[in-house]
Task: structure prediction
Amino acid sequence: MPRHNSISALPVALSLGLAACADLNRLAPTTGARLSGIDTTSSAAPTVSPAPDTTPSPAAPPASFGFKATGLPGVTRRIELELASGDTVVASTSFATDNLAGGLTWPLELIPGASLSLTARALDATRIVALATASVVPATVGWPSVDLAFQPTVYRFAGTGQEGAFVEGVTAREALLSNCHNLTSDGKRVFASIYTSDPLATRIVQLEPDGRVRRIAGNGIPADNEVRRGTLPVDTGKPALESSLPLPSRVRADRHGNLWMVFGNQRLYRLATRRTDGPWPVMEEGQMAEILASPPGGASLSSELAVLPDGTVLIQTPIFAVPTTWKLRPIAGSTASLEPWFGARLSTTAIQEGDILTGSGLKASRFTTAPDGSLLVDGYLPGGLWFCPASSGNHFGQAMSAGHAYDLMPAILQAYSPITSINGQRTFLSDGSLVMSINDDGLLLRVDHQTGNITRLAGLAGLSATSVSDGLPSSEWPIGSLYSITSLDDGRVFLTNEMRHTIYELAL
Result:
């Protein structure tokens, strides 16, 4: 088998190509046996074979081998290709996706008509992030175009899978991250709340994409009962690292360096993960401040919390036993203003497709913000998965107006008809696509922002979550129920499930 050269390459969009050449004359099979040019089976006088034609045959035209790639993660830095006949690799090459030039020349000597398998691996700086396979049959002149649909691989990003107190100075994969909940991201980093169950001690950790992890809040000492219930505040007069924290019901990061946390279902705090900027007053890294001690009318906060890109904090209060969503904004001379946005407010009108969200009676059981400020509301009474775009235009394959609400559930039900419940976790990718779990069915889906097409990323019906062998195609993972999910701007998705001491990673 001839050796081949690795080829460098051009920035990959959604379509890539390569070319292969074959010297078919060199590979022509031998079809019979000859002895000194004499036919030994004939009784006739031997005849002399004519002299061979020494005129060179014209070179076979180059064979075109093209492929299209879909689902290629944004973190891809290199693609490896491998052609095999059965278990035997007959050719392989690799190229960098940041140095692709108009096409690739891949000199090959292959037998036309042979059935081959093509394996493609997409890699980031250190490991495989997606896989694709296809079958190809070289033709005498020209090869067919091959579609490579990449699917993500899943890795254990952090946590050993065992419970125990967090230890400083270890890598994320070596860290004991007991009971990971409340994953959230500022686009560049991931944050999580963790706790040990005996004693009940809470910590907040920060994880970098390269696998570094550090504690940023919580001293590991159990908080007093009054602090856990929210009747007494957290001591914000000391650095967050020295404070005894109760277990937060929700943690959300914003783009300005803040973590927002609800404790005891009635107190809202802001923690600076770095020196903050944005509309809220500046705090230095490690400082913590109470923002809201008690919502209007003495009602408690529910567990729902989100932050819009402009710094507006969304919170819920279960007034009249039905949640109302409020906007919390900083204003000069006071802590903040609080104004109702949508929810109960004594409304008896159910929201309809395309209605304006502001002032509507839509009851939210969960809401998720997108990087552009769009909002997704898991609704009940009526149910649905309501998307409220921040800008007018085409979203999820249909025309939408800013500030109005559109139900995405009919399309999801059409794609996965057995689904009866929308219970699950959601996150938006930087391109506006939605990644969501359907916990009752153990599915992880992606809804493309441009087309609305729905693909299954993970989940196998009837199977519960299990630990993952690094590099497993995500479609083969029985993911079970998600506890939390978040994503970075580069397309990496992080999630926790029933294997609650572990954080997993997909690259999309």
User: Anything to note?
Assistant: The mean pLDDT is 82. Helices lie at 225-229, 409-415.
